[in-house]
């Protein structure tokens, strides 16, 4: 449509679809949202414009699409025009995320396993998809910084790698977030990237989630090194306690450390008024506290937020006196909440908690207040976690006193957090510090805090009757006694105070406070200040006002005279009491007079302090009273260690003599004290080392002190001071001569260890660990010396180098020792030797340092003499050395490469530390590749490149053979040699022509070259192994294959050059080459069809298709062999056949001619090609069935190419074409088998395909071994499916080919090696066991006889006796049945039940070829129900539609792609058993052959002749009987066989009656026989049968037959059928004779309580006999008694004749039968009336309003038709209602009717149009009675069932439409059943498209108009013949299959015959089906079939649209049908 318009080239080239576009037109391009398009042309502008282009996922498909759904994006266009290339200019990561989301969306939805693990994985991937979308949006925002973008890309990469791994997709190698360019990246590095990505994919979640903890609240990265600080923001939301006084709430964090509960932080004070409001009005909803500097370890553990609540008020709250001004701090309540930050839900930024508060208002419980939080925490630990639940979870609990807080975690440095959250911190957030220094001390952490904790007091009662109310007042005084103001902080968030008052405990002489205050004393007043504690007694008297009286005081000095701070810990202070007189002088009291007194309780007993106490002191301490406090110093300015001054002032006279002692003490000082004064201490130590006297006397101690300090800096706690030390080295250090003593001291330590190896020297080990610091100072000292103008220059330089040489010599001597005690030194020096490289390179050249390293390592023992640990650290040292700049310099690299290769070669050869050696080799290869790449990229010509080529040559010479041999030795451990393979690949890639020449022609010659080629080709064979790398390493595999392919060019040339001549030709090496080429081409990694289209194109662009290139090389090499090709036949047939099966057209075209060439050479040599043929067929079977190679295209190409070639070859023209045809047939069968080889739902298909293949091997190509193989496969399938009879018959095929010989058979399949006769015996026993379990004992008898003869012949009497016993047992089971498995009922036997048979037809081209448009008979066991086989077929063919009718289908169904299945039950028709003639054969024996050994089956389709007689339906009831014949008899080696012949027979009403009577008579005879043998089991069934046949109250009994046939009217109207009257009478008399012994049996076994029933039956039986006798004697019968006897047992599956097949008895919901048979209490057989039958005399009911799914085609608009087909497929009303069976063998129609009526009662019926095939008329009323139907019902499985009475309750009956005719019957509750309304089947409707242009449907050929079928006038009704294929519908609208006279019979090979007399004709009727109200409905049908109003179809469907099917003729067209003069009549 658009092609006629003008299109112009588009300026917009690249865009993305923003919504889905279906593209219904023929030229439209369907698009999905997010799909990118390449725009070529444009039509129009604006919103109505159109684009023409392609998608990037399928560039081959060109189409048009609306421009309004495309979002244009910027792009870069290269080579604009027809071959233009468009590249998006967006960030590559953005594009990659889009591609990844596209791929994931198509994959993650398939994770539908029901396991919880799969569901969790699916949800994880879904969340990561959402996060990728968010991150992609953030990437498109260009407002981010580079650091932010880098972080986001790292997160994206982590998520993508993780998701690809979880979804099984290929890993994408990346470096720093960017995809790797394999051409610029070494293969070693590429391998390592893959390993890292694989580790990410194994994680439970992407690593990016872990990185979230390293970001601040805004997402910025805080630090890449060191621990990250975390901060807890607590917001006080609500104070839910009614205290009545102002309160102070103290919040602090607690945590368990070392199993001890400790307080981590200071206290956050929250002050509220007595009204419950914050004291500061500005803090309403704004009360924040920030707990700072929490570590990650602390956050990962449980934290406890403890709240202590104090009230500020009266001593006793119940004291109501007014005028009391003193307020005391009293304990009130405690609360605790616990939380673990790492376990909190990640979807929230803030978590809210409620803290339960325990009230302590009762004074008796105050003593527990201070420690009560420990009890609460212990309860929380024990599992009472109610307090720890967030509000959302704890809201259900009933809370009392609570505090509400919220918690938020902030990460990073505090300054950055404040900057990021200005609004939050602008409102005043209290900062709560940790108590003491952090675990990691920062150099910038400047604090001078002194913590004092008021613990407890122990006081005397004195003359008081009760305890004191003690309050402690704390103040800080200077040395002069002045008060230091505003230096006390009790609660963070409040201003500093000058004094602090403690809480008061009521009447307690031993109060415990545990209240901590922080003293922030100025540095200048900190020395010699005092902390004073004044104790007050708070009086509470009713007679006096409350007041505070001083009781005593205590104090302690903060520092001593040397400014050393008091030790941290608990101190017991002396309490100096104050008496009454002293209280009055307290204002003038000068405390400085008493500061020299002892303040510690322990000092009172010390004689020295006591002597200093003045004798006239006014205050004296009471030894029985004390105040306990605890102190903690957190200061960077003051120390508690007294030895540091002796070091810092070492030159002082008092310290210099004790210098050595002081240095020893220095090494014991705590690290925190050292780092405070780091610069000063280092200056002092290096000053000592510069001093000659100190250096001479104490150099060893000075060096030891330096090692101690450097070791401290290496500690985790002080690692933040490393920058401080480095800054000191570069900026502060000035000792220019210390390098010599440092080297000497270090060397002396090493030499001492060599001299005394048994003595452990910890200092030497520590020296090695801090070697980097030591050499930093050595090098810095040397550089300072060089700058010194007084330096001697070269002499000093020589001395320095000599010292270094001596030092490395000492190291070498230490490494050369083999003493065990030396190993610890060797391990440490090798682990840390690399630390000196960087500092030494500042003063030495690269070559010099490499020489020193070689000097130290060359004296070490060989690898095999070193311990594992030493070898390991040595290799790690070499790896670190390679990573330095030493490897970039030619001079140093030359030394190091040789050193490294010697170590690697030794390790690989002796298998010692192989992994580390490979890693070292990988590092060398990686660096050499980088250098090589750098040279080529810069195009520099210098000596460096020459050196690199020399290094590559050196590696080839020294390592190639070693690597190759190691790979071959580790080939069984593919995952352990990945790195070594990467090294080999890198070496091959680096090699140039000259390297290959040297490798092939210099290093390896002659026999050595052959061995080398064998080895290298073997290595390549290992490298193409699919298990060598994980399956998702696609990039790594492609690089590997590319390197192998390039190398193969050199090695293949060597083959042709050296091993093609006659004298040097070697079959083995050529064989290895060809097998390698086959493995290379067929490896999974090169099958590009397994990748996505984009990825496959990417690989093709980079590498081409290496399969094709290698295939061309193989063909060339094969052709070059010449006459030597015969040496490889037939060995290479299998490998080359694998090549031909590669799913690539070009490879197949190249390699298939090789197969023909092999056939020709085999024909030349042997005169035939049997060798090639045998090998090809055997390998083809294995490759297709086990390896799933090949496809339909291969079969066609194989046939085409090979047929052309063999026809062109003279030697192959005779037998070649037949060979090609046979192999093609084999391919068809193998492909069918492969499609169904997996899955339980395909087990039937698998059996069928196996059957076809074994027949092919047996019949077509006579391959017995392959035939036997598939026989065993089929046997195994039957055993798994419990098909025991079929399994035995299948295994019998194998047993038949064996003989009773002594030949030894090899072990094959599942059989061990044994004699042929032993295997045959074993098979016989298995077969007999299968027959026994399958209850086909008749088949086991011949085998027992064969075994008995064999045993007797070989005198195996023991086995003979056993087999004869088993044979006798089988005879007994045949007659009596299977014994009961119940041990208490061993004498009970159960007769075997006959199998059920079903017809299944498959229609549609999408079915497999072996069932397509074919019909099959299925044999089921006794437990198989129709619903079961339906469910099985639905599972096997989920796309198929199970049709609810069995009408013949038109060719449109067969030619369409939709799948349709028809199914119905069948009745077997046994053949004539000549061996039974003239013999009295037991009925049990006869019964077996009625359902077994059969190949003919039948099913009946009842209808009525003419108008149905509503009073006596026997007058008009006819049957259409269809017989089918199968190719094989049942049972066989399959449970189903194909139908090969069909014939149809019509039975008139009298023949129907005859068939019915035969059935009843035979069934009754059988039941009598069974009851005689087992009355307990069969008597109830006999009683029901007798009652039904004699009483016949419901159906009228045999009287109906008398009324129908024994009349003159019948003989007059149907003279041709009168010949059957004699036979009918004979059967009636026979029924009387059969009933007589039945009554005798009933009388014999009837219980007494049922004797009246028996009497009643006898009376009715006598009446029945009189009725039969009234009709006189028999006429001369045209049917002999012999024929009657013969036909008597040919009815049902249980050996009796049956009027109706199992189809009608089981398919109650089937629509192929115009009525259903439902057994009632009286076993009345009736039918469901046709639509017009229910409306006779009253006209059709009004057409109800139908939903869209029920509308007729002409009622549906075009807009509605698009979804109609989909509705029909899903709506149950179009499929029929499925019902359950209450019987094992069939489905009760009574149940179905009661269920269906509720949905179908409103559906109207319509008159059925008739086709003039045969005159028939349908009656309008149900038949009132049929002759003697028993009250029991024999189902399709042969069981006798009693129908439950509850099936016929009125509640389940549908309401029939009212009838106005007098013949209408009122059905009683117990006498009849309800039936569903009837309608025909729906017309097949073509699937409609959504396109707008839909042309009308052309007229159908052979359509019948309304005039043709006689619907216009009532007069035309007489022209109607046999009704069309009508079906029962329980919920669908009535439609019809219209028979077309022009319709030819189907192509299926089915014979249609007519048997019996002339089919009954239907008399004319005055009733017109089209008259009355039904006329409107029929006019609708006229419209439906009219060509002018045919339903439209979409134009895009073309010829593929299925046509309205026309049914095939049901009978032979040669039948005589009377012609009418009416022009509207038609003839068949």
Would you write up a description of this structure?
There is one protein chain. The chain is an alpha+beta fold and about 2050 residues long. It is built from 63 helices and 43 strands. Strands 11, 12, 13, 14, 15, 16, 17, 18, 19 and 20 form a ten-stranded mixed beta sheet that branches. Strands 1, 2, 3, 4, 5 and 6 form a six-stranded antiparallel beta sheet that branches. Strand 12 (about 245-255) and strand 13 (about 260-265) form a beta hairpin. The longest helix has 27 residues, at about 945-970.
Provide keyphrases for this structure:
2028 residues, disordered C terminus, six-stranded antiparallel β-sheet, 63 helices, alpha+beta, ten-stranded mixed β-sheet, extended
Structural class: alpha+beta
How many whole angstroms does the radius of gyration measure?
A: 52 Å
Shape: extended
Q: What is the overall pLDDT average?
A: 75
Beta-strand residue percentage: 5-15%
Largest sheet: 10 strands, mixed
Number of strands: 43
Poorly predicted spans: 209-226, 384-399, 939-944, 1674-2028
Tally of alpha and pi helices: 63
Indicate the percent of residues in helices. Answer: 40-55%
Distance between the termini: 46 Å
Short description:
This protein has 2028 residues and is of the alpha+beta class.
Fold blueprint:
Layout: E1 8-9, E2 14-17, E3 36-43, E4 50-55, E5 63-66, E6 70-72, E7 75-78, E8 85-88, H1 92-105, H2 116-139, H3 146-166, E9 174-175, E10 178-179, H4 187-202, H5 207-211, E11 230-240, E12 247-257, E13 260-263, E14 268-272, E15 288-294, H6 296-300, E16 303-313, E17 328-339, E18 351-359, H7 372-381, H8 391-394, E19 402-411, H9 414-420, H10 422-425, E20 430-432, E21 448-458, E22 470-477, E23 488-489, E24 499-501, E25 512-519, E26 530-539, E27 547-557, E28 569-574, E29 576-577, H11 580-584, H12 607-612, E30 626-635, H13 644-648, H14 659-666, H15 671-676, H16 678-690, H17 692-714, H18 722-732, H19 739-755, H20 762-769, H21 771-787, H22 794-816, H23 823-832, H24 837-840, H25 846-857, H26 868-882, H27 890-910, H28 914-938, H29 943-969, H30 978-990, H31 993-1002, H32 1007-1023, H33 1034-1058, H34 1067-1082, H35 1093-1103, H36 1106-1120, H37 1133-1140, H38 1145-1166, H39 1170-1185, H40 1192-1208, H41 1216-1235, H42 1243-1259, H43 1264-1280, H44 1284-1296, E31 1304-1305, E32 1314-1315, H45 1316-1333, H46 1337-1353, H47 1357-1376, E33 1378-1379, ...
Parallel strand pairs: 15-20, 37-38
Antiparallel strand pairs: 1-3, 2-3, 2-6, 3-4, 4-5, 7-8, 9-10, 11-15, 11-19, 12-13, 12-14, 12-16, 16-17, 17-18, 18-19, 21-25, 21-30, 22-24, 22-26, 23-25, 26-27, 27-29, 28-30, 31-32, 33-34, 35-36, 35-38, 36-41, 38-39, 39-40, 40-41, 42-43
Helix pairs in contact: 1-2, 1-3, 2-3, 3-4, 4-30, 14-17, 16-17, 17-19, 17-20, 19-21, 19-22, 20-23, 22-25, 23-26, 25-27, 26-27, 26-28, 27-28, 27-29, 28-29, 28-30, 29-30, 29-32, 30-33, 32-34, 33-36, 34-36, 34-37, 36-38, 37-38, 37-39, 38-39, 38-40, 39-41, 40-41, 41-42, 42-43, 43-44, 44-45, 45-46, ...
């Amino acid at each position: 449509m658009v092609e006629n318009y003008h299109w112009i080239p588009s300026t917009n080239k690249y865009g993305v679809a923003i919504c889905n576009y279906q593209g219904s037109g023929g030229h439209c391009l369907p698009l999905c949202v997010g799909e990118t398009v390449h725009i070529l042309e444009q039509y129009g502008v604006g919103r109505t414009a159109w684009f023409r282009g392609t998608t990037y996922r399928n560039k081959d498909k060109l189409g048009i699409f609306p421009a309004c759904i495309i979002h244009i994006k910027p792009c870069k266009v290269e080579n604009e025009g027809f071959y233009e290339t468009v590249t998006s200019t967006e960030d590559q990561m953005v594009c990659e995320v889009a591609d990844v989301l596209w791929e994931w969306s198509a994959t993650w939805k398939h994770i539908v396993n029901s396991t919880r693990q799969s569901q969790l994985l699916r949800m994880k991937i879904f969340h990561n998809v959402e996060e990728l979308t968010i991150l992609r949006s953030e990437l498109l925002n260009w407002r981010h910084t580079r650091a932010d973008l880098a972080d986001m890309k790292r997160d994206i990469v982590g998520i993508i790698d993780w998701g690809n791994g979880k979804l099984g997709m290929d890993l994408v190698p990346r470096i720093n977030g960017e995809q790797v360019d394999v051409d610029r990246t070494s293969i070693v590095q590429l391998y390592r990237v893959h390993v890292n990505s694989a580790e990410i994919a194994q994680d439970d979640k992407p690593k990016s989630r872990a990185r979230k903890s390293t970001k601040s609240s805004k997402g910025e990265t805080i630090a890449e090194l060191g621990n990250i600080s975390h901060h807890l923001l607590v917001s006080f939301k609500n104070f839910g306690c009614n205290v009545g006084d102002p309160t102070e709430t103290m919040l602090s964090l607690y945590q368990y450390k070392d199993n001890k509960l400790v307080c981590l932080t200071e206290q956050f004070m929250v002050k509220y008024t007595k009204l419950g409001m914050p004291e500061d009005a500005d803090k309403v909803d704004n009360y924040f506290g920030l707990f700072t500097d929490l570590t990650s370890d602390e956050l990962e553990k449980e934290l406890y937020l403890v709240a202590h609540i104090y009230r500020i008020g009266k001593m006793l709250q119940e004291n109501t006196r007014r005028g009391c001004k003193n307020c005391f701090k009293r304990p009130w309540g405690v609360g605790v909440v616990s939380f673990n930050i790492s376990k909190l839900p990640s979807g929230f930024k803030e978590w809210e908690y409620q803290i339960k508060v325990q009230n302590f208002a009762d004074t008796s419980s105050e003593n527990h207040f201070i420690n009560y939080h420990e009890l609460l925490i212990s309860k929380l630990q024990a599992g009472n976690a109610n307090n720890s639940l967030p509000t959302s979870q704890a809201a259900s609990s009933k809370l009392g006193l609570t505090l509400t807080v919220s918690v938020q975690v902030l990460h990073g440095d505090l300054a950055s957090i404040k900057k990021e959250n200005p609004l939050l911190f602008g409102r005043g957030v209290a900062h709560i510090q940790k108590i003491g220094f952090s675990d990691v001390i920062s150099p910038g952490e400047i604090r001078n805090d002194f913590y004092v904790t008021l613990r407890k007091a122990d006081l005397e009662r004195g003359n008081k009757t009760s305890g004191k109310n003690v309050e402690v007042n704390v103040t800080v005084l200077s040395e002069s006694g002045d008060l230091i103001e505003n230096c006390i902080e009790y609660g963070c968030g409040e201003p500093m105070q000058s004094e602090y008052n403690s809480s008061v405990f009521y009447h307690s002489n031993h109060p415990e406070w545990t209240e901590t205050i922080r003293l922030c004393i100025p540095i200048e007043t900190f020395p010699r200040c005092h902390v004073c504690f004044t104790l007050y007694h708070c009086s509470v008297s009713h007679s006096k006002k409350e007041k505070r009286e001083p009781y005593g005081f205590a104090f302690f000095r903060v520092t001593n005279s040397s400014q050393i701070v008091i030790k941290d810990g608990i101190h017991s202070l002396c309490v100096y009491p104050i008496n009454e007189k002293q209280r009055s002088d307290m204002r003038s009291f000068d405390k400085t007079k008493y500061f020299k007194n002892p303040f510690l309780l322990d000092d009172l007993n010390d004689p020295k302090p006591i002597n200093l106490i003045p004798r006239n002191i006014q205050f004296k301490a009471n030894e029985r009273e004390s105040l306990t406090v605890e102190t903690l110093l957190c200061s960077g300015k003051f120390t508690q260690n007294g030895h540091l001054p002796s070091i810092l002032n070492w030159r002082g006279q008092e310290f210099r003599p004790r210098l050595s002692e002081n240095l020893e003490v220095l090494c014991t000082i705590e690290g925190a004290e050292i780092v405070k004064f780091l610069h000063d201490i280092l200056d002092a130590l290096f000053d000592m080392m510069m001093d000659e006297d100190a250096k001479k006397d104490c150099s060893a101690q000075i060096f030891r002190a330096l090692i101690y300090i450097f070791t401290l800096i290496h500690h985790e706690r002080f690692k933040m001071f490393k920058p401080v030390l480095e800054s000191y080295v570069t900026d502060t250090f000035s000792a220019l001569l210390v390098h010599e003593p440092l080297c000497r001291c270090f060397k002396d330590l090493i030499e001492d260890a060599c001299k005394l190896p048994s003595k452990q020297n910890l200092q030497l080990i520590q020296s090695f660990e801090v070697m980097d610091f030591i050499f930093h100072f050595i090098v810095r000292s040397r550089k300072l010396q060089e700058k010194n103008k007084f330096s001697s220059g070269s002499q000093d330089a020589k001395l320095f180098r000599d010292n270094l040489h001596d030092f490395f010599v000492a190291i070498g001597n230490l490494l050369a020792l083999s003493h065990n005690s030396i190993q610890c030194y060797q391990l440490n020096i090798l682990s840390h030797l690399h630390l000196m490289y960087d500092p030494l390179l500042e003063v030495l050249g690269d070559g010099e340092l490499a020489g020193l390293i070689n000097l130290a390592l060359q004296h070490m023992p060989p690898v095999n003499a070193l311990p594992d640990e030493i070898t390991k650290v040595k290799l790690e040292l070499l790896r670190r050395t390679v990573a330095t700049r030493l490897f970039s310099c030619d001079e140093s690299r030359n030394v190091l490469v040789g050193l490294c290769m010697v170590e690697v070669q030794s390790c690989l050869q002796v298998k010692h530390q192989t992994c580390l050696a490979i890693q070292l080799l990988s590092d060398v290869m990686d660096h050499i590749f980088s250098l090589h790449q750098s040279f080529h990229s810069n195009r520099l010509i210098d000596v460096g490149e020459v050196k690199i080529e020399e290094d590559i040559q050196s590696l080839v010479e020294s390592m190639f053979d070693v690597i190759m041999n190691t790979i071959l030795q580790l080939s069984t451990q593919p995952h352990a040699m990945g790195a070594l393979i990467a090294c080999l690949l890198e070496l091959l890639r680096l090699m140039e022509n000259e390297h290959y020449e040297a490798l092939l022609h210099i290093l390896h010659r002659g026999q050595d070259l052959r061995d080398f080629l064998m080895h290298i080709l073997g290595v390549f064979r290992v490298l193409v192994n699919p298990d060598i790398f994980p399956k998702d390493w696609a990039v790594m595999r492609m690089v590997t294959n590319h390197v192998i392919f390039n190398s193969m060019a050199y090695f293949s040339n060597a083959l042709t050059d050296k091993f093609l001549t006659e004298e040097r030709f070697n079959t083995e090496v050529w064989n290895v080459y060809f097998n390698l080429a086959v493995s290379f081409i067929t490896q999974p990694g090169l099958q590009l069809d397994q990748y996505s289209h984009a990825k496959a194109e990417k690989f093709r662009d980079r590498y081409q298709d290496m399969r094709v290139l290698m295939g061309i090389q193989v063909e060339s090499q094969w052709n070059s062999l010449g006459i030597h090709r015969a040496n490889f036949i037939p060995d290479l047939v299998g490998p080359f056949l694998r090549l031909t099966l590669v799913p690539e057209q070009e490879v197949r075209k190249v390699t298939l001619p090789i197969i023909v060439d092999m056939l020709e050479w085999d024909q030349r040599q042997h005169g035939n090609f049997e060798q090639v043929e045998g090998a090809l067929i055997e390998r083809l079977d294995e490759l297709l069935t086990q390896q799933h190679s090949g496809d339909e295209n291969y079969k066609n190409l194989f046939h085409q190419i090979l047929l052309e070639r063999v026809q062109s070859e003279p030697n192959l023209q005779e037998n070649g074409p037949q060979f090609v045809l046979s192999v093609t047939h084999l391919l068809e069968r193998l492909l069918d088998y492969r499609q169904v080889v997996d899955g339980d739902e395909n087990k039937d298909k698998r059996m069928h395909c196996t059957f076809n293949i074994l027949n092919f091997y047996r019949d077509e190509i006579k391959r017995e071994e392959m035939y036997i193989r598939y026989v065993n496969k089929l046997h195994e399938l039957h055993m798994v499916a419990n098909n025991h009879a079929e399994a035995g018959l299948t295994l019998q095929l194998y047993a038949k080919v064996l003989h009773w010989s002594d030949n030894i058979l090899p072990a094959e399949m599942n059989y061990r090696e044994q004699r042929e006769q032993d295997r045959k015996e074993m098979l016989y026993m298995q077969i007999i066991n299968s027959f026994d379990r399958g209850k086909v004992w008749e088949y086991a008898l011949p085998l027992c006889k064969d075994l008995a003869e064999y045993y007797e012949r070989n005198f195996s009497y023991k086995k003979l006796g056993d087999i004869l016993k088993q044979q006798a047992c089988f005879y007994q089971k045949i007659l009596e049945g299977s014994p009961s498995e119940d041990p208490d009922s061993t004498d009970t036997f159960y007769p075997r039940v006959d199998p059920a048979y079903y017809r299944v037809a498959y229609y549609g081209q999408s079915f497999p070829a072996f069932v397509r448009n074919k019909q099959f008979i299925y044999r089921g066991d006794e437990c198989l129900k129709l619903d079961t086989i339906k469910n099985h077929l639905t599972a096997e063919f989920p796309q198929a539609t199970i049709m609810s009718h069995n009408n013949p289908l038109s060719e449109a169904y067969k030619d369409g792609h939709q799948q349709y299945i028809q199914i119905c039950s069948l009745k077997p028709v046994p053949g004539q058993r000549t061996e039974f003639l003239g013999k009295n054969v037991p009925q049990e024996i006869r019964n077996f052959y009625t359902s077994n050994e059969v190949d003919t089956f039948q099913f009946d389709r009842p209808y009525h002749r003419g108008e149905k007689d509503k009073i006596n339906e026997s007058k008009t009831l006819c049957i259409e009987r269809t017989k089918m014949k199968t190719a094989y008899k049942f049972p066989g080696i399959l449970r189903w066989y194909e139908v090969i012949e069909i014939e149809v027979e019509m039975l008139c009403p009298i023949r129907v009656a005859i068939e019915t009577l035969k059935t009843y008579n035979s069934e009754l005879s059988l039941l009598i026989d069974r009851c005689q043998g087992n009355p307990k089991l069969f008597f109830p069934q006999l009683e029901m049968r007798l009652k039904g046949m004699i009483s016949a109250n419901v159906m009228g009994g045999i009287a109906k037959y008398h009324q129908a046939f024994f009349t003159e009217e019948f003989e007059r109207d149907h003279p041709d059928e009168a010949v059957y009257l004699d036979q009918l009478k004979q059967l009636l008399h026979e029924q009387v004779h059969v009933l007589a012994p039945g009554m005798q049996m009933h009388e014999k076994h009837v219980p007494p309580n049922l004797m009246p029933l028996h009497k009643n039956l006898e009376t009715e039986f006598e009446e029945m006999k009189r009725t039969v006798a009234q009709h006189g004697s028999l006429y001369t019968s045209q049917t002999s008694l012999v024929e009657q006897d013969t036909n008597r047992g040919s009815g049902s599956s249980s050996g009796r004749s049956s009027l109706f097949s199992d189809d009608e008895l089981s398919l109650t919901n089937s629509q192929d039968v115009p009525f259903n048979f439902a057994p009632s209490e009286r076993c009345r057989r009736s039918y469901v009336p046709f639509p017009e039958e229910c409306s006779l005399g009253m006209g059709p009911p009004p057409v109800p309003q139908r939903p869209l799914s029920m509308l007729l085609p002409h009622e549906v608009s075009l807009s509605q038709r698009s979804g109609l087909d989909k509705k029909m497929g899903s709506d149950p009303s179009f499929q029929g209602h499925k019902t359950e069976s209450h019987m094992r063998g069939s489905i009760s129609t009574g149940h179905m009717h009661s269920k269906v009526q509720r949905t179908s009662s409103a559906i109207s019926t319509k008159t059925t149009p008739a086709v003039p095939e045969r005159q028939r008329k349908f009656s309008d009323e149900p038949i009132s009675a049929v002759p003697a139907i028993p009250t029991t019902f024999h189902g399709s499985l042969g069981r006798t069932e009693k129908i439950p009475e509850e099936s016929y309750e009125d509640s389940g009956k549908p309401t029939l439409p009212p009838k106005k005719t007098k013949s209408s019957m009122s059905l009683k509750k117990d006498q009849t059943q309800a039936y569903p309304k009837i309608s025909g089947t729906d017309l097949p409707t073509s699937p409609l498209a959504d396109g707008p242009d839909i042309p009308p449907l052309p007229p159908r050929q052979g359509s019948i108009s309304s005039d043709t079928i006689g619907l216009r006038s009532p007069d035309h009704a007489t022209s109607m013949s046999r009704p069309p294929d009508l079906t029962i519908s329980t919920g669908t609208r009535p439609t019809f299959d219209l028979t077309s006279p022009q319709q030819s019979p189907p192509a299926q090979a089915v014979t249609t015959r007519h048997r019996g007399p002339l089919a009954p004709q239907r008399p004319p009727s005055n009733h017109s089906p089209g008259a009355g109200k039904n006329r409107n409905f029929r006019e609708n049908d006229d419209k439906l079939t009219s060509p002018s109003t045919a339903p439209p179809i979409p134009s895009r469907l073309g010829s593929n649209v299925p046509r309205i099917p026309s049914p095939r003729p049901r009978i032979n067209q040669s039948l005589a049908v009377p012609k009418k003069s009416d022009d509207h009549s038609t003839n068949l």
